[in-house]
Amino acid sequence: MAKVNRQIRLAARPLGFPKESDFEMVELPVPEPGEGEVLTRTLFLSIDPYMRGRMNDTKSYSTPVPIGGVMVGRTIGEVVASRDSGFAAGDIVVSFGNWQEYALIRGKTLRKLDPVLAPVSTALGVLGMPGHTAYVGLLDIGQPQPGETVVVSAASGAVGSLVGQIAKIKGCRVVGIAGGDAKCRYVVDELGFDACVDHREADFGAALARACPRGVDVNFENVGGAVLQAVWPLLNDFARVVVCGLIAHYNDNTPSRSPDLRSVLIKRLTVRGFIITDHNARLDDFLRDVSAWLREGRIKYREDIVDGLEHAPEAFIGLLHGRNFGKLIVRVAP
Amino acid sequence: MAKVNRQIRLAARPLGFPKESDFEMVELPVPEPGEGEVLTRTLFLSIDPYMRGRMNDTKSYSTPVPIGGVMVGRTIGEVVASRDSGFAAGDIVVSFGNWQEYALIRGKTLRKLDPVLAPVSTALGVLGMPGHTAYVGLLDIGQPQPGETVVVSAASGAVGSLVGQIAKIKGCRVVGIAGGDAKCRYVVDELGFDACVDHREADFGAALARACPRGVDVNFENVGGAVLQAVWPLLNDFARVVVCGLIAHYNDNTPSRSPDLRSVLIKRLTVRGFIITDHNARLDDFLRDVSAWLREGRIKYREDIVDGLEHAPEAFIGLLHGRNFGKLIVRVAP
After folding, report:
1. ipTM tops the 0.95 cut
2. Angle subtended at Cα A222 by Cα A328 and Cα A262, rounded to the nearest 5 degrees
3. Residue B1 has pLDDT above 50, yes or no
4. Burial code of A266-299, b = ≥16 C-beta within 10 A, e = fewer?
5. Treating both helix axes as pointing N-terminal to C-terminal, what angle do A129-136 and A283-295 enclose, rounded to 10 degrees?
6. Which pTM was predicted?
7. Phi and psi of A310, rounded to 5°?
8. Which of A241, B157, B161, B174 could be a cystine partner for A271, CB 3.0 to 4.6 Å?
9. Of residues A257 and B276, which shows the higher confidence score?
10. What is the pLDDT of residue A213?
11. What pLDDT score does A159 carry?
């Protein structure tokens, strides 16, 4: 093959918010698969907040991307050549293909998709890692009961939008927090949340309190910072704080202190962090339930698709500023 | 009855550490029991950290003591007169008799003690609320597994000493934190902890790290503040932080911020507060297990007994400074 594989690598470790110069694009020959390997052409690349953590050289739950290494990411790919008998050219697969146009992947790490069941891009969103995150985080960590109030930040995002819709299915009052009027209207009018509060408004804290007249029983935290500070005083006794993401802090250079610990004691709160890769045992349950809810029209989703691998850095930086609207995906191959 | 009932009341709400002038002693006639009531003479009064919270006029999990109100507290009493057919003069009972020499109590709130089974003062300590707190907090909230490392602060105290001994019974490595060499030696030599670190030493953080070579899986937190800050970086993935008490903060006038929230996410921590009165369903299990361990000599306890109700304020203030050594009890009647 004489084709070129464009690849985006980490050029420098960002201090604070990443800049486009922290990434570099290189061109390489497209490789040939070895025994047990599959060559895929990337169709879609998922862009997610966790990627900011991989750019740091600090101990975390997974290995940092080395300087000069290709940026990591889940992809939907089409098999171009296969030396694994389980896959053939034309198969559509989901894998960690990373920020590049072609990826060599061991067959046993691939999952085949049936394009007839759902649009294949959903395997990066509502039927992928963000959906799995929402399902496990809400149901297993948050344990919402019918009639309880659930607050979810980044409510129009890939995770938050599903958290709120599942909480509605489970009989909760659901209040979203989002940035800007358009996202708030979408969350209420399209997704069916009971209310949504704009964290950019001057009276955000008071508006959130008005939207939660019976307090907050489950806080699904995707943001942290000022958003969490506003939720904190509204927490009821025995409330659960699901720490799923802290995007407000990913670009901090200082520790992110959490709110008053005495409240944890007095209100008997549970504050619990989770990482979805620890919860693969719930993957089948998630796929079964959310697929059914999608078919029944009880779950909606929204994708924010950016064309061209070269725009991935800009799209990722925008995500960290809340500029996307829905699950952010880069369409790598037209 | 012409006898006098001496009673200690809250005279003023403390700012920061309480002073003796925040309390006042008054003398009243000993009252007569009405229908369904029992008059008890107080033998022992339990002095506990939670009492500091009751002196504040802020929303908490229970009602503040009003200015001029008698200070609350659990007591062991002897029935002097009874108009409840379930109790007779001479019975020994545990109840909320408060900081006074005689108490009128509704019979249905009393629990009778058998002085033959165990010294009656143990119903305020190892077989009372502190013991129940240790049992539920460690086993139900902390969920220690054999081989895990458990750290407990205020390790020589009523709760901490039992937490560590139960954790040893459950097969854990147990590291105590206590103030001063005498307490640390007691915790290791008498109670059988694997190690104990003095939080007053200059190299406390480093010493704690050396005592926990495999990190910390359960942190049973009785103190907060600098003690918790030292434990925090040692927490392993999936560690549980049991927030039982925050005595370092009870005299703060500002919120007590907890350590880095990002660690909660990255390490998948569970930080959970609890109040023992929510866990009465486990009272029988606690009494059964801890009574058996006491009989078998697997559990030891230590009481710090102060004579005379008039010394209760001083003893309580000393407790908040860590001056007691073992379960602090005031012997009210000789």
Report:
1. no
2. 175
3. no
4. bbbbbbbbbbbeebeebeeebbebbbebbeeeeb
5. 100
6. 0.90
7. -65, -20
8. A241
9. B276
10. 98
11. 96
For domain A129-278, which CATH number applies: 2.60.40.10, 3.40.1280.10, 1.10.10.10, 3.40.50.720? Answer: 3.40.50.720
- Answer whether B17 touches A (CB < 8 Å): no
Chain B contact probe: residue of A249, A266, A274, A278 with most B CBs at under 10 A: A266
Residues of chain B contacting residue A232, judged by C-beta atoms under 8 Å apart: none
Structure token digits, residue B88: 């007779």
Phi/psi class of residue B261: alpha, beta or left (left: φ > 0; alpha: ψ in -120 to 50)?
A: alpha
Q: A residues 88-127 near B, CB within 8 Å?
A: none
Interface probe, candidates A243, A244, A276, A277, chain B, greatest B C-beta count within 10 A: A243
User: Two tokens at A45?
Assistant: 């690349």
Average pLDDT along chain A: 94
Exposure b/e, B129-164, CB count within 10 A at least 16 = b: bbbbbbbbbbbebbebeeebbbbbbbbbbbbbbbbb
Entry field: residues in chain A: 334
- The C-alpha atoms of residue B245 and residue B249 are separated, in whole angstroms, by 9
Q: Report the gap between the CA of B246 and the closest CA in chain A (Å).
A: 7
Q: Would you list the DSSP string of A86-106?
A: T--TT-EEEE---SBSEEEEE
Q: Which residues of chain B lie closer than 8 angstroms to A275, CB-CB?
A: 265-266, 268
Query: Closest Cα to residue A331, out of A304, A307, A303?
Result: A307
SS3 content of chain B, % helix, strand, coil (to 5): 30, 30, 40
Mean pLDDT, residues B229-239 taken together: 96
Mean pLDDT of the B251-277 span? 84
Q: Say which DSSP state A63 is in.
A: P
Question: Within 13 Å, how many C-alpha atoms sit on residue B30's CB side?
Answer: 15
What tens digit of pLDDT does each residue of A242-256 get?
A: 999 888 877 776 656
Per-residue model confidence (pLDDT) at position A256 = 61
Q: How many CA atoms lie within 13 A of A132 on its CB side?
A: 19
What's the number of CA atoms in the CB half-sphere (13 Å) around residue A85? 0
Q: Could you count the other beta carbons within 10 Å of the beta carbon of residue B170?
A: 18
Predicted confidence (pLDDT) per residue in A158-196, tens digit: 999 999 999 999 999 999 999 999 999 999 999 999 999
What is the C-alpha separation between B174 and A88, in angstroms, rounded?
56
Domain B4-124+302-331 has CATH 3.40.50.1220: no
Average pLDDT, chain B: 94
Q: How big is the CA angle at B169 (ends B165 and B175), to the nearest 5 degrees?
A: 45
- The secondary structure of chain A in percent helix, strand, coil, rounded to multiples of 5, reads 30, 30, 40
| Residue B234, Ramachandran bin (φ over 0: left; ψ between -120 and 50: alpha; else beta) | alpha
Binning pLDDT at 50, 70 and 90, where does residue A257 land?
low
Instruction: Give the CA radius of gyration of chain A.
Output: 20
What's residue A101's pLDDT? 97
Tens of pLDDT, residues B61-106 = 778 999 999 999 999 999 999 999 999 999 999 999 999 999 999 9
pLDDT at residue A112 greater than cutoff 50: yes
Of the candidates B232, B215, B319, the one whose C-alpha atom is nearest the C-alpha of residue B271 is B232
Kindly state the tokens that stand for A154.
């980044």
Pick the more confident residue, B6 or A258.
B6
Give the domain ranges of chain A. Answer: 4-125+301-331, 129-278
Second-level CATH architecture of A4-125+301-331:
Alpha-Beta Complex (3.90)
Q: Which of A261, A263, A274, A275 best tests the B interface by mutation, with the highest count of B CBs <10 A?
A: A261
